[in-house]
From TrEMBL:
Source organism per UniProt: Brassica rapa subsp. trilocularis
Gene3D superfamilies: Ribonuclease H-like superfamily/Ribonuclease H
Superkingdom: Eukaryota
Annotated ranges, domain RNase H type-1: 4-60
Name of this chain's protein: RNase H type-1 domain-containing protein
Ranges that cross the membrane: 26-45
Amino acid sequence: MCSESDSSQLIKAVNSGNCVPELDGVVADILSFASIFEFISFVWISRERNGQADMLAKLANLVANLLTIHARVTSRVVETDGNVGHDKMESIPEMMFAAREEPLEFVF
């Protein structure tokens, strides 16, 4: 299997085993997943050649952030009042921003 990425820093880290602390978790996940294959290579490609995968990754990140917000808001509404009524639903937009402990991060 050949795995391609437009991140030269990530490819270097995966291939060498040496990485910056910010990539430790990602590299560990990649190497764990890679262990199921008998043969796998990691290759750098240009961003232009990686457009569809890049767009899919951005969309997945956006969906994950929205699901996190939804889960926190739903949890907070239910905790506030077991019976979610119309008055509670009106406060959801404010709660969406209050529910985040850290700012949203979108990778583009």
